[in-house]
Design a protein that fits this description.
Elements: H1 7-38, H2 46-53, H3 61-67
Length: about 70
């Protein structure tokens, strides 16, 4: 780990943390809205959130809904 950083790097860190916090708030709001759509079931509620945090770019909402026992009509 570095022992010193520049003032510019400190400002970059402040900006990145601010941006990350704003994005986290957006993600949190999205998760709340997803819970409203499927209902707040703790047992399966994480399956949709798993899609949000997955490193895989392929969204697999259909599989998550199937695993949750939710049919799309």
């Amino acid at each position: 780990m570095k022992k010193e950083i520049t003032k510019n790097e400190e400002l970059q860190l402040i900006g990145l943390i601010t941006l990350a916090k704003k994005h986290y708030k957006i993600v949190s709001d999205c998760e709340k809205e997803m819970e409203k759509i499927v209902g707040g079931d703790d047992e399966y509620g994480g399956l949709l959130s798993d899609n949000v945090y997955s490193r895989d770019d392929n969204d697999d909402v259909s599989s998550a809904l199937k695993d949750m026992g939710i049919k799309v009509r």
